[in-house]
Design a protein that fits this description.
Elements: H1 12-15, H2 31-35, E1 46-49, E2 53-57, E3 67-71, H3 83-104, E4 108-112, E5 129-134, H4 141-144, H5 155-163
Amino acid sequence: MALERFSAAWRESYVSSAFAGTFDNEASRCVFCELAKEPVGESSGVLRRSQFCFVVLNAFPYGSGHLLVVPYRHLASPEELSDEEYLDFSLTLRDTVGALKTTYRPDGMNVGMNIGSAAGAGIPKHLHAHALPRWDGDTNFMTTIGETRVLPESLQSTWQKVHEHL
């Protein structure tokens, strides 16, 4: 079957207008900026600090071991990082993936970033990367039909398991 293409060029002015991005709440406090001030600890969820970023538990995980790598600086996109920050961010993300593999022995791993609210970023104004262990068959009817996620461990348990490997 051939891929059909639709043109909606008439939408270009809307997408690039002053209205694009107005749903980002500039006035609210940034949870990542607040977490950047917290010490490494089970109560804060912060697992590790590096020179330019930190690793933290995702407070609303998609599955066990869902971690975030977050730069200290409040910026929205990776091209805003300096070369030093980008290197530190990338190396910290690599170490985080390694720690999750050692801890959980998953069948796979989701690693990625959602840049902007249109891409699904829950906190679109502060860059962060997700690292999430995955297993064959780890989705089920609860997620698909029940719109509910079943997590087999608490955030405290995740912190304790992963912290020793970071």
